Amino acid sequence: MGVLSEHVIEEIRGLPAQFPDIRSAVMPALDLAQEHVGYLSPEAMSEVAELLKLDPGYVQGVATFYTLFHTEPVGKHRMYLCTNISCKLRGADDLLAHAMQSVGVGGQSEVSADGLFSVEAVECLGACEYAPMMRLDHSYHYDLTAEKIDALIAERKNVLPIHGEVPAKPAEGPPAAPAKPARKRAAAPRKKKADA
Ligand code: FES
User: Fold this and answer.
1) Is the pTM of this model over 0.90?
2) Residue 120 DSSP symbol
3) CA 83 / ligand 1 centre spacing (Å)
């Protein structure tokens, strides 16, 4: 018996019809498998390869190339803090250290003792104008502070209710810029990206 549910299997089977090249279906398929299993175990990757009729080595290669895919167990909630230049200049390294300390992990490969959290430093997530920022599961969080991180952790621990969040896009290649948050900007605006 496989590790993927019938529902996930059906979704993955439907992916190739959405792309001109079946290999383009690998990332959304891996995203579905990871969401279902919690991480990309060898069995999960093997099933994805079989469902898409692709070489298992190719699927594994994709899974190990992108940082948003995990081939080892991770926390139920994954915090991806951007530490690229814009976020770094606005304190991302300190926030990364704070997040790790707050959930009680000593490294990026660790899972918190309660199994709830893991923390990772990642490259630019395409929301530089709202730096520092992070992705938490499927939501982006902007203008990050230590206090905001602690509140998000408390929400996930069911200490505080989860309030409105900005949904992140599923993994479909390098992370794309998220939609801007539906809220007013602060009175002193930061430099905006130039119009295309
Ligand atoms: S540098 Fe952090 S989102 Fe771009």
Assistant:
1) no
2) E
3) 7
C-alpha 41 to ligand 1 mean position (Å)? 29
Around ligand 1, the residues with Cβ closer than 6 Å are 82, 84-87, 124-128, 131, 133
Domains of the chain in sequence order = 7-65 (1.10.10), 77-167 (3.40.30.10)
Is pLDDT at 96 greater than 50 in this prediction?
A: yes
**C-alpha 90: how far from chain center:** 21
What would the two tokens of residue 75 be?
A: 């926390």
C-beta separation of 37 from 76 below 8 A? no
3-state secondary structure of 169: coil
Q: Report the share of the chain in percent with pLDDT over 70.
A: 81
Residue 98 has pLDDT above 80, yes or no: yes
Ligand 1 atom, smallest distance to 131 CA? 2
Helix, strand, coil share (%) of the chain residues, nearest 5: 40, 10, 50
| Beta strand pairing call for 166-167 and 134-136 | unpaired
